[in-house]
């Protein structure tokens, strides 16, 4: 007899742990039927969670998956929210056939975080399973226990919590690969102590620390993104932008409505590239949640990146206003250090050649570093106008010295073969001395890096 049939017959004495675990875990392999698939759809398909012999969807495979997540948490290599860890540990107690221990763990979570709705949902199912069969994840909430909401509202709320459970477990099962780093960070400015990389697909914000010029994983948090996903194009589309940004301000909670929770960190969307591409919108922040909420579903914001208030409070001291980079990616590509080093070396050589040719006042060589699609701010918006302007300036010089320092380099996570380079530029000549912070976008064209945008950072 299949697990599903035994559940339907109410034989729960030996099945409470596997059923709840399946309801929360099996989807990671594509068969978390109770968590991802409404019961009516399971019936329509004529399938059962345990129909594949020894495959994903069986109590054994759920146990194996739970062991994998437990190993990740126990290894000490992963640093995430204590509350989330406790919630997941409570769920993992089910895999060890210890529902009372699971309930105790969930109760501890709720004692400190009574607004954690997902924990309430799991607790409700644990209590219900003591007296009657469970047929779906969120049975207690779906049947309206302790709430005056109508059926449609209850179903919507449970579906949102189902998505949150899936996102939390998926992200914890996907441990950052050892000895690998996000390919998007090529080089940090020496002053940048930390970098943020958002993996939208895994609802995860990673924090990396720069130690002696090397990037190291520090911690990560569950996050929510736009209601309609990512790749923002226009004002009001409820999508989160993809690209390379930086934190530009710190708005304390005292100056904000309760909706933003512990505070907000605005980023510089739209950046120059967004504007060139005609992307619109504003007010994209990293921020907290209202005081009556612990966390939001994985896709629920108007475009911002949203964290639980305790997580935002833990993130805030690491932020350097005007410096901390925020890379928002559809998903992180993890590569080894040698791949990053090779790309960095290639791009560094191109930047140095550009600096050297400018300093040498060789206009023909200097302009070869610019793409035919080049644009800029100000009056010299096209390559032709830029060439004319630079030619006139160059004619008045007898010598030029160009110094670059505090350089950072990133690969854009949403545009192929595009890099963002920022540096402090020290310009001196026979008739002008000038310092500025500059940003360039370089694109790999036919195997050659060329500048497609240049302007003040």
Summarize the structure.
The protein has 457 residues and is of the alpha+beta class.
Please give the radius of gyration in angstroms.
26 Å
What about the largest sheet? 6 strands, mixed
Q: Averaging pLDDT over every residue, what do you get?
A: 84
Number of helices: 15
Record field, number of beta strands: 19
Supply the helix-strand structural class. alpha+beta
Strand content: 15-25%
Any idea what the shape is?
elongated
Low-confidence stretches: 1-19, 25-60
Strands side by side in the biggest sheet: 2-16-17-18-19-15
Query: Percent range for helical residues?
Result: 25-40%
Span between termini: 66 Å
Overview of this protein structure:
By secondary structure, this protein is α+β, with helices and mostly antiparallel strands. Helices cover 36% and strands 24% of the residues. It is built from 15 helices and 19 strands. It has a six-stranded mixed β-sheet. Helix 5 packs antiparallel against helix 6 and helix 6 (82-95) runs antiparallel to helix 7. The termini are far apart.
């Amino acid at each position: 007899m299949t697990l599903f049939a035994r559940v339907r017959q109410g034989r729960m004495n030996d099945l409470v742990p596997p059923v709840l675990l399946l309801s929360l875990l099996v989807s990671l392999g594509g068969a978390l039927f109770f968590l991802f698939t409404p019961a009516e759809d399971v019936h329509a398909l004529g399938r059962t969670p345990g129909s594949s012999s020894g495959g994903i969807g069986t109590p054994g495979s759920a146990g194996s998956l739970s062991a994998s997540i437990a190993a990740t948490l126990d290894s000490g290599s992963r640093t995430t929210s204590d509350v989330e860890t406790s919630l997941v540990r409570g769920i993992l107690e089910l895999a060890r056939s210890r529902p009372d221990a699971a309930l105790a763990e969930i109760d501890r979570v709720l004692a400190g975080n009574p607004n954690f709705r997902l924990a309430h949902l799991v607790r409700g199912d644990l209590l219900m399973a003591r007296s009657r069969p469970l047929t779906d994840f969120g049975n207690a909430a779906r049947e309206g226990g302790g709430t005056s909401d109508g059926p449609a509202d209850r179903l919507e709320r449970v579906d949102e919590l189902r998505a949150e459970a899936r996102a939390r477990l998926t992200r914890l099962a996907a441990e950052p690969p050892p000895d690998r780093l996000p390919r998007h960070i090529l080089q940090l400015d020496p002053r940048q102590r930390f970098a943020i990389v958002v993996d939208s697909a895994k609802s995860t914000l990673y924090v990396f620390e720069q130690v002696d010029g090397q990037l190291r994983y520090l911690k990560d948090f569950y996050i929510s993104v736009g209601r309609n996903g990512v790749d923002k194009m226009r004002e009001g589309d409820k999508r989160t932008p993809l690209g390379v940004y930086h934190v530009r301000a710190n708005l304390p909670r005292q100056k904000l409505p309760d909706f933003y929770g512990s505070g907000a960190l605005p980023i510089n969307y739209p950046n120059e590239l967004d504007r060139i591409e005609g992307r619109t919108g504003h007010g994209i922040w990293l921020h907290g949640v209202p005081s009556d909420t612990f966390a939001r579903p994985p896709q629920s914001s108007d475009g911002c990146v949203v964290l639980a208030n305790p997580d935002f409070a833990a993130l805030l001291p690491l932020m350097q206003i005007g410096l901390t980079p925020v890379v928002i990616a559809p998903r992180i590509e993890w590569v080894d250090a040698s791949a990053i080093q090779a790309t960095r070396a290639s791009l560094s050589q191109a930047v140095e050649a550009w600096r050297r040719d400018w300093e040498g006042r060789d206009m023909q060589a200097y302009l070869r570093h610019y793409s035919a699609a080049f644009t800029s701010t100000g009056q010299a918006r096209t390559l032709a106008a830029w060439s004319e302007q630079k030619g006139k300036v160059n004619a008045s010089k007898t010598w030029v010295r160009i110094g670059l320092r505090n350089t950072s380099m990133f690969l854009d996570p949403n545009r192929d073969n595009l890099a963002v380079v920022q540096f402090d530029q020290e310009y001196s000549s026979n008739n002008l001395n000038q310092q500025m912070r500059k940003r360039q976008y370089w694109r790999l064209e036919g195997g050659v890096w060329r500048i497609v945008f240049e302007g003040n950072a």
